[in-house]
């Protein structure tokens, strides 16, 4: 039987992750409080954040910004995690 968690993203019980998806205490917190579906939603948002802010996962400064966005998106903490201001999905008119 799959492990379930109360997902902080979905605000309901859902199937949990198989292992922490990120290193350290943040990864453990995500494992305990974010579902597979919630993590998938984060990965979709992450792609937008990286592209819109021109971040690099090879740059330690960018990793710090990404983690702040991650905490904002997954747990509603801090000022980051939302879509970049003025962002419009491809194909959407201004």
Automatic annotation (TrEMBL):
Keywords, alphabetical: Iron
GO biological process: cellular response to oxidative stress
GO CC list: cytosol
Signal peptide extent: none
Gene3D superfamilies for the chain: Fe(II) trafficking protein YggX
Pfam families on file: Iron_traffic
Molecular-function GO term, any one: iron ion binding
Family: Belongs to the Fe(2+)-trafficking protein family.
Function field: Could be a mediator in iron transactions between iron acquisition and iron-requiring processes, such as synthesis and/or repair of Fe-S clusters in biosynthetic enzymes.
Name the record gives this protein: Probable Fe(2+)-trafficking protein
Organism per entry: Sulfurifustis variabilis
Lineage, highest ranks first: Bacteria, Pseudomonadati, Pseudomonadota, Gammaproteobacteria, Acidiferrobacterales
């Amino acid at each position: 039987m799959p492990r379930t968690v109360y997902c902080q993203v979905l605000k309901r019980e859902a199937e949990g992750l198989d292992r922490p998806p990120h290193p350290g205490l943040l990864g453990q917190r995500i494992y305990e409080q974010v579902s597979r579906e919630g993590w998938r939603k984060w990965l979709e948002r992450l792609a937008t954040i990286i592209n819109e802010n021109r971040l690099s996962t090879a740059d330690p400064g960018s990793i710090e910004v990404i983690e702040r966005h991650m905490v904002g998106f997954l747990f509603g903490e801090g000022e980051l995690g939302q879509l970049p201001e003025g962002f419009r999905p491809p194909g959407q008119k201004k």
